[in-house]
Specification:
By secondary structure, this protein is mainly α. Helices cover 71% and strands 0% of the residues. The protein starts with a helix and ends in a 5-residue tail after the last helix. Pfam families: BPD_transp_1.
Length: 277
């Protein structure tokens, strides 16, 4: 019993030590956001005087716009793309997971190949195409592709749908349901954990996307939070690093809240994807 107790204490000690090691950069980040520029290079974790004004001053530091404006832009864009991604990906995944059609395996293989294709390869052709469509400096380069689903999300949902017994579809069709009725009444409710996983990933990826908005958005009035942080550095001759770090810390709050609020469904969706029912 004593050996088991010692092993348990040793395990907890190792886990706590590694957790502290992983959390240290975040702790330094919080401390640095409260420091003046003169103390950023000092080895101390926290400042001699807490500058809470870094948060209030940083929020209104950019000319003509506050961070409220960029937050609204990010939320409008990310919520729209997230909802469209969930709807389109679930529809396509339902087709691959339940409906038989010609060359189904070939199309699914081509879909998987697009996951392996680096985004940098398609960057220039996509920009040229969107430029011809006059979509540059609009949100359409983000909204329209999300309405066509995402290869990774479709693959994730297909694996989940395949684990749902097919007898449920047959029972629903015997009761008069169409294929869309099976999708809406049977598949969507049962894939709730996987759908929430798709929502979380989609929101996180679009919220922290810097390259896409940098390429397609030119007007400051359309900038998202990542672009606002970069502009924060461009608009001051002497960068107030404390204010910049404070705003970057504030920028991750929606991501952290979303993950913790949906953590149970997220873990369930990851753990059950691909399991056969």
């Amino acid at each position: 019993m004593k050996a088991i107790s010692r092993n348990k204490w040793l395990t907890h000690f190792v886990l706590i030590a590694f957790s502290a090691l992983m959390f240290y950069p975040v702790l330094w980040w919080i401390g640095a956001s409260l420091k003046p520029n003169a103390e950023l290079s000092l080895p101390s974790l926290f400042p001699s005087r807490f500058m809470w004004s870094n948060y209030s001053d940083g929020w209104v530091a950019l000319p003509k716009y506050t961070f409220t404006y960029f937050y609204i832009n990010s939320f409008k864009l990310n919520i729209t793309t997230m909802l469209l991604t969930v709807i389109s990906s679930s529809l396509v995944a339902f087709g691959f997971g339940r409906i038989q059609f010609a060359f189904k395996k070939v199309w699914f293989s081509l879909l998987l190949l697009t996951i392996m294709l680096p985004a940098q390869v398609t960057l220039i052709p996509q920009y040229a195409m969107f430029h011809k469509f006059n979509w540059v400096n609009t949100y359409l380069p983000f909204i329209v592709p999300s309405a066509m689903g995402g290869a990774f999300f479709i693959f994730l949902l297909v694996q989940f749908i395949r684990g749902i017994p097919g007898e449920l579809d047959e029972s629903a069709k015997m009761d008069g349901c169409s294929w869309f009725g099976v999708y809406w009444r049977i598949i969507l409710p049962l894939t709730k954990p996987a759908l929430i996983t798709v929502m979380i990933f989609s929101f996180l990826w679009h919220w922290e996307d810097y390259l896409g908005p940098l390429i397609y958005l030119n007007s400051v009035s359309k900038f998202t939070v990542p672009l606002a942080l970069r502009m924060f550095m461009d608009t001051q001759s002497a960068v107030q690093w404390g204010q910049l770090l404070a705003m970057s810390l504030v920028s991750i709050v929606p991501q952290v809240l979303l993950f913790f609020l949906a953590q149970r469904h997220f873990v369930e969706g990851i753990s059950t994807t691909g399991l056969k029912g």
